[in-house]
Amino acid sequence: MAKLSHQLEYIAALSGVKLAQALSPRLANSLGATLGSIGHAVLTSRRRIARDNLRRAMGDKLTEAQIDDVVKQVFRNLGRTLIEFCR
Is 54 strand, coil or helix? Predict the structure, then answer.
């Protein structure tokens, strides 16, 4: 069964790469930002870790709203980077 799941993961990854390569740079950038936003919404534990790390690093220099905005932008940038890597 593990072999089948690996094959399905491979097919999904290859399909994602092919999609990213077929898109224009502008659409690819939008797709990456959207994937990052989805990741931000879904990956709550990673979002919490990013917020905690920013609080520790920045102290009182950023408000909670600013920290939340930075974390969201980091996730969006990671999505863009993923798509850029696939392209």
Answer: helix
Judged on CB neighbours under 10 Å (0-12, 13-18, 19+), 64 is exposed
- Asked whether the CA dihedral 35, 36, 38, 39 is positive or negative, the reply is positive
CA atoms of 57 and 4, how far apart (whole Å):
43
Q: Which two tokens stand for residue 16?
A: 């994602």
Helix (H) or strand (E) holding 71: helix 64-86
Output the pTM of the full model: 0.86
Q: What is the pLDDT of residues 62-84, one digit of tens each?
A: 999 999 999 999 999 999 999 99
Eight-state DSSP code of residue 60: T
